TrEMBL record:
Keywords: Hydrolase. This is MBL fold metallo-hydrolase. It comes from Rugamonas aquatica. GO terms for molecular function: hydrolase activity. The keyword Hydrolase applies.
């Protein structure tokens, strides 16, 4: 008996054993999560996906690059959906999509689906993530997804060593570097210092560099600043830590068959269609000069008059109401009276500026007599996308300037107003569009 493992995209996999087929974190879109473009590039045969009937789908967490309503919409509604999430709203959304068998996952509680057993394992951020321990054909595979290893979980997993395969999230992300370039770390990219000990404790026979198979738009400076680790660097360093292990790159559609004695190629997934060169790699540039937000905004499609009005009205009214309703932490930079400027750029690169006086939880629009001490820039198209489509922070091209070195970037008023206490905005917007489309 063998275990067949196939890569879909990003953290998506198909596991097959003795007639049982399970799909993990399925994404059948390119681009996905608004502007995550598959890297390497792929297309999907949607007709074949609609005809596919997996025995179950397992979703590790609620982030939109793992749980997409548009991708789930392609699947048979009788498919059991197993989801790790602490929020009831997402279960309700998936049921509203028409799925009749949606079940919560609990840490360390095994789920048996035919010939495959899946055990959710605790990740470092257990309020968000989970990992998957997959057992089949006498094999143990650990799918870390894109979470971080919890020290207690590592101790729990050590007795299973040597693991037959580990799907390891090889890439790190420099979100602060692109949101606030003045805070950029620069320098030679390093793999996290805890990885050698963790991987050596698991002692896997095979390691797959997993997750983060995407880039932003072709013109985006993020493609040289957000992802610092290359496949080449990962393979070299992990090989040095684990000289007996095989480092196996699985591009989208690629399949392998795993046994206790060997790993062999298998027929690729027919419904994942590679486009162009597949063994591409990241190209980090620590010295890159970020383009001005005005230039970025000119790359984005213009909004309608109605959409623009909604975004700008938020700057005048909705943002103020939201900010006043939130509770500021006592050590926040904004506990001290200050002036904050928000600049919103249209598709021609022209900015409309809003200046606010902030003191604690109080905020009010003010004139331009006082110079701002904290400034935030954003294209209006991305502000609208955040408001109406649930776009995530790391793809909004928000730029923070002038924040004091000891201030917390996430205290930025726009970040707090868009993302504090916001859950499932992306999936909710997807569900609304699907329902509107189906009603036509």
């Amino acid at each position: 008996m063998t275990l067949r493992i196939s890569r879909i995209l990003h953290a998506g996999y198909v596991f097959e054993c003795d007639g049982t087929r399970i799909v993990f974190d399925p994404i059948f879109e390119n681009p996905f999560s608004r502007n995550c473009h598959a890297f390497p590039d792929v297309r999907f045969d949607l007709a074949q996906i609609r005809g596919m009937k997996p025995d179950a789908v397992f979703i590790s967490h609620f982030h939109d690059d793992h749980c997409s309503m548009e991708s789930l919409d392609l699947l048979d509604r009788d498919t059991p959906i197993y989801l790790y999430c602490l929020f009831d709203e997402l279960f309700a959304m998936i049921r509203a999509l028409g799925f009749v068998n949606v079940r919560p996952l609990k840490v360390d509680a095994p789920v048996q689906v035919g010939a495959i057993e899946v055990i959710p394992r605790k990740a470092l951020d257990s309020d968000v993530d989970s990992m998957f321990h997959i057992r089949a054909a006498g094999l143990n595979v650990l799918n870390v997804v894109d979470s971080w290893m919890d020290p207690e979980t590592l101790e729990q997993l050590k007795p299973y060593a040597p693991w037959d395969m580990v799907l390891w999230p090889f890439q790190t992300m420099r979100e602060i570097d692109v949101i606030a370039p003045s805070r950029a770390e620069g320098g030679t990219p390093l793999l996290p210092e805890e990885w050698p000990e963790q991987l050596q404790a698991l002692a896997p026979r095979y390691v797959v560099p997993s997750s983060c198979q995407f880039v932003q738009e072709p013109w985006s400076w993020y493609n040289h600043s957000l992802f610092p680790i290359t496949y080449r660097q990962f393979a070299q360093e992990v090989s040095a830590w684990l000289p007996g292990a095989g480092i196996v790159r699985l591009n989208p559609s690629v399949s392998v068959e795993l046994t206790p004695h060997a790993l062999t190629p298998s027929a690729p997934l027919a419904w994942v269609l590679p486009v162009g060169e597949q063994d591409v790699d990241y190209a980090y540039d620590a010295a890159i000069t970020p383009p001005p937000t005005s230039e970025i905004a000119r790359h984005l499609a213009p909004l309608s008059a109605e959409q623009t009005l909604l975004a700008l009205d938020y700057c005048r009214n909705g943002l103020l109401e939201k900010y006043r309703d939130m509770e500021l932490t006592p050590d926040s930079y904004f506990e001290t009276p200050c002036v904050w400027q928000l600049s919103v750029y249209d598709h021609e690169g022209v900015a409309q500026q809003f200046r606010y006086r902030i003191h604690g939880d109080d905020i009010a629009l003010t004139g331009d007599q006082e110079a701002p001490t904290w400034t935030t820039e954003i294209p209006v198209a991305k502000l609208y996308a955040g408001l109406a489509m649930g776009e995530s922070l790391t793809s909004m091209y928000m730029r923070i300037n002038g924040a004091p070195p000891d201030a917390d970037i996430v205290d930025d008023p726009l970040i707090r107003c868009l993302f504090n206490d916001a859950f499932g905005a992306y999936q909710s917007a997807q569900l609304k569009r699907i329902k509107e489309r189906n009603a036509q």
